[in-house]
TrEMBL record:
This is PCDGH protein. It is found in: Cell membrane. It comes from Loxia curvirostra (Red crossbill). Its main location: membrane. The chain crosses the membrane at residues 674-697. It is a single-pass type I membrane protein. Gene3D superfamilies: Cadherins. Keywords: Calcium, Cell adhesion, Cell membrane, Glycoprotein, Membrane, Repeat, Signal, Transmembrane, Transmembrane helix. Potential calcium-dependent cell-adhesion protein. May be involved in the establishment and maintenance of specific neuronal connections in the brain. GO terms for cellular component: plasma membrane. GO terms for molecular function: calcium ion binding.
Length: 702
């Protein structure tokens, strides 16, 4: 909060050192590149006078400084400005005092002063002379007057209010126009500078006939107070000088004395009435006080001088000026509370309450404004920033003075919030389920997972990886793979429901931030069954052992001849490796030696007698049943059952022993031979019938 103060003389050349600013702010040389020390550009005219060297952090003069041009007649002169440092952003206040040097010589407004003095004026009469003006200040503006030696005249200096010295010409002895009608004297003025500067004016005195009374102002100093922005032509003050003479010697005219150049452009004096009026509107912000001299001259050439003090009172005619000195945009969303994001300068040229400014922020944003010294304000974060909720904040800086009526101005601040990787990817679902029919093609799409990351750029770019599962990451990789960009899961090979009915895979979603954030979702894959397995008959088996000659002896069942209808002969047992409808089995009888003798349970597979066994039924029976599942299309298998009709196993053994090796084949051959003989007999009968019919037909025609 303290100001850094320097003092330099005026008229220093460009590039002159003002002071080691970086060192005085506590910044080391290593910090300078990152902190970016710079003079704030607040739009003020005086800020062009200085610059900061980026390499060493020293403050230098940027252009010639003229104290008189910058501060006028003010006793003190200083330039105040702000300097900014970044990373983190902060503002410091600097004040440079401009010390006066004796660079201005005292000057008179005229090169020649003409005086007319009557010959009858007695010795001791005093004639006020024009005061010289020196633009310097302090001791450099202390003036001393000297007059060339002449026995008829001497120089006297009169002390005036404010410390100024009024030179006066004193008549030392009577004049005689007939002896000497004119005099020429040189008035020299010397200032108090080191080295001293001087100026001269020629005084030409014309000795006239008697005009023995000079004009006299009613006051030595006239003071008045006027408001700024008075319209042109407004009366400011009226001065009055009287002359005891009559005629032309008593007629007084008024004029400006040795005044600054700006006075005649602002004020005008009526030479006859002494009324001082404004030439144009006055501006308190440019200058708040004017001091100048007036001269009253009678018709005989005698003069008197007075001083006019005009104070300009301020009006609230200037709205506050808002300048954004620095804006740190974008600001990272993890910036701590209290971080400086902008530095704003508010300046109101008015004075008093009219120049007292309050500043506030308008708008919904986690920002606040904090007053600093020198009319600067810091915009700081008042809470946490979240880019995902608001990627930018727009607030209005409103500055309002305390005048009546109050004036205000505003400017908009747009603060962008940059992304920080503070959000992990989130899956749409914590657990996914996928269904894949078995026997799929390798590379078939299983499922597409998707995770969203609220961050932006690389922080929100999501990649997918396998992180394990029921068989571990290696085992899961053998079954499925995931595409890193899209999150699509593909089958690595054909799946078999009978080997693996379901498995789980863990998929990790990871963003591209640094450090990276990730989350995991579980994918449960269910393998759907297809009808790819035919039923398998467990009983009766195709062969139970080895028979004579190495042939397989088929299994058989013994059924007593006394068996009634519904007698359980055997049960066909079959299984299907599929599931669901694909494994539902039904049984049908497709072939039997005596089809009417046996039946098969549709769902149980039980082979029972359909009627009572008769004596005429062959002792050996062969029953073939088909087992079908309910898949689409259905698959089937056949079971062959050999039945022996006998009361006991001992009775059935002879029947079985008569069956030589290959009996089944012999029976089949005999059966085939029977049908062939039958077919041959039928063909022969047809041939004989055809011949007989042909003979009969011929005989009939004959």
């Amino acid at each position: 909060a303290e100001r850094v103060r320097y003092a330099i003389p005026e008229e220093l050349g460009r590039g002159s050192l003002v002071g080691p600013l970086a060192r005085d702010l506590g910044l080391s040389a290593d910090e300078l590149p990152a902190r970016k020390l710079q003079v704030a550009s607040a739009g003020k005219k005086q800020l062009k006078y200085f610059r900061v060297n980026e390499e060493n952090g020293n403050l230098y003069v940027n252009e010639r400084l003229d104290r008189e041009e910058m501060c006028g007649e003010s006793a003190t002169c200083s330039v105040s400005f702000e300097v900014l440092v970044h990373n983190p952003l902060n503002v410091f206040h600097v004040e440079v005092s401009i010390e006066d040097v004796n660079d201005n010589s005292p000057v008179f407004s005229k090169a020649v002063l003409d005086l007319e003095i009557g010959e009858l004026i007695p010795p001791g009469a005093r004639f006020p002379l024009e005061m010289a003006r020196d633009a310097d200040s302090g001791s450099n503006s202390l003036l001393t007057y000297q007059l060339t030696s002449d026995p008829s005249f001497s120089l006297s200096v009169k002390e005036k209010p404010g410390g100024k010295k009024q030179p006066e010409l004193v008549l030392e002895r009577p004049l005689d126009r007939e002896k000497q009608s004119s005099f020429e004297l040189v008035l020299t003025v010397v200032d108090g500078g080191e080295p001293a500067r001087s100026g001269t004016v020629l005084i030409r005195i014309n000795v006239t006939d008697a005009n023995d009374n000079p004009p006299v102002f009613s006051k030595n100093v006239y003071e008045t107070r006027v408001a700024e922005n008075l319209p042109a032509g407004s009366l400011v003050l009226r001065v009055v000088a009287t002359d005891a003479d009559v005629g032309s010697n008593g007629r007084v005219s008024y004029s400006f004395g040795n005044v600054p150049d700006d006075v005649p452009s602002l004020f005008a004096i009526d030479s006859e009435s002494g009324a001082i009026r404004t030439v144009c509107p006055l501006d308190f912000e440019e200058k708040n006080k004017y001091i100048f001299g007036l001269e009253a001259t009678d018709g005989g050439g005698l003069t008197d001088h007075c001083e006019v003090h005009i104070d300009i009172t301020d009006e609230n005619d200037n709205a506050p000026e808002i300048t954004i000195l620095s804006l740190s945009s974008p600001v990272p969303e993890d910036a701590p509370a209290g971080a400086v994001v902008a530095v704003v300068n508010v300046n109101d040229p008015d004075s008093g309450e009219n120049g007292q400014v309050s500043c506030e922020l308008s708008g919904e944003a986690p920002l606040s404004i904090v007053a600093s010294s020198g009319g600067s304000y810091k915009v700081v974060t008042s809470g946490a920033l979240d880019r995902e909720q608001a990627s930018e904040h727009r607030v209005t800086v409103v500055a309002r003075d305390r005048g009546r009526p109050a004036l205000w101005s505003s400017t908009e601040l747009v603060l962008e919030v940059s992304d920080v990787n503070d959000n992990a990817p989130e899956f749409e679902e914590a657990a996914y389920s996928a269904y894949v029919a078995e026997n799929n093609a390798a590379g078939a799409l299983v499922l597409r997972v998707q995770a969203r990351d609220a961050d932006a750029g690389a922080n929100g770019r999501v990649s997918y990886w396998l992180a394990g599962g029921s068989a571990g990451a290696a085992g899961a990789a053998a079954l499925v793979s995931v595409e890193a960009r899209s999150g699509a899961l593909y089958a690595q090979r054909s799946l078999d429901y009978e080997q693996c009915r379901e498995f789980t895979v863990a998929v990790r979603a990871q963003d591209g931030g640094s450090p990276a954030r990730s989350s995991t979702a579980t994918v449960r894959v269910f393998v759907l069954d297809r009808n790819d397995n035919a039923p398998r008959v467990l009983w009766p088996a195709a062969a139970a052992g080895e028979g004579p000659g190495g042939a397989a002896a088929p299994p058989f069942e013994v059924v007593p001849r006394s068996a009634e209808a519904g007698y359980l002969v055997a049960k066909v047992v079959a299984v299907d490796a599929d599931a669901g409808r694909n494994a539902w089995l039904s049984y049908e009888l497709v072939q039997a030696s005596e089809p009417a003798l046996f039946r098969v349970g549709l769902h149980s597979g039980e082979v029972r007698t359909a009627r009572a066994v008769g004596e005429r039924d062959a002792a050996k029976q062969r029953v073939v049943a088909v087992v079908k599942d309910h898949g689409q299309p259905a698959l089937s298998a056949t079971a062959t059952l050999h039945v022996v009709l006998a009361e006991s196993l001992q009775e059935a053994l002879p029947e079985l022993s008569e069956r030589p090796a290959g009996a089944e084949a012999a029976e089949a051959a005999a059966e085939l031979q029977f049908y062939l003989v039958l077919a041959l007999a039928l063909l022969s009968a047809l041939l004989v019938l055809s011949v007989a019919l042909a003979v009969l037909a011929r005989l009939r025609r004959a």
